[in-house]
Amino acid sequence: MFYEPTKGHGLPHDPSKAIVAPRPIGWISTLNREGKINLAPYSFFNAFSTRPFLVWFSSEGQKDSASFAEETGEFVANLVSRELAEKMNRTAVDAPRGVSEFDYADLAMAPSRLVAPPRVAAAPAALECRVTEILRPRALDGTQTSAVVVAGEVVGVHIDDAFLNDGRFDIVRAGNVGRLGYMDYSSISDIFSMRRPRWGKD
């Protein structure tokens, strides 16, 4: 089949998120100027540079995570392990502003080192970030979309020693959770390796 997204797909459910999948989940913790804490999962999340280490998350609409990050210039991207998947899902609740998702999901907080927002204590890894820019992308016709893209530089990295194996982060042990389409998720349980080819060396 072929379809043009602006004209509809004709399927019972939108396939776009299932096609662009799996997507890593940035479990974003933020703090506003009044000290209110927010924790929410974002599957529009990824890294886009290593030097400097830059990550981004995108909010479909001006939600608390984007608002708080814009207010204070900081956020933490926590990794979701398979063991934390159900609690992560609880933090996706549309709670009133000011309600702590940490409390709602019965999650312990841990202090960050270089930024004010706390991190998820049980997360296998967490990235402390300072906001570098906030983008509001436009559509082809020039109209502003509802997306709010928050980019940040990672200034501190926490790794639980239990997930280090011979100096490498063990993503299978952590069972990194990714978002698929619809209501589906994946957890890493198998990996394979391939060396990048070098011209003239194959």
From TrEMBL:
Residues 18-171 form the Flavin reductase like domain. GO terms for molecular function: FMN binding; oxidoreductase activity, acting on the CH-NH group of donors, NAD or NADP as acceptor. It comes from the Bacteria. SMART domains: Flavin_Reduct (SM00903). InterPro entries: Flavin_Rdtase-like_dom, Split_barrel_FMN-bd. This is Flavin reductase family protein.
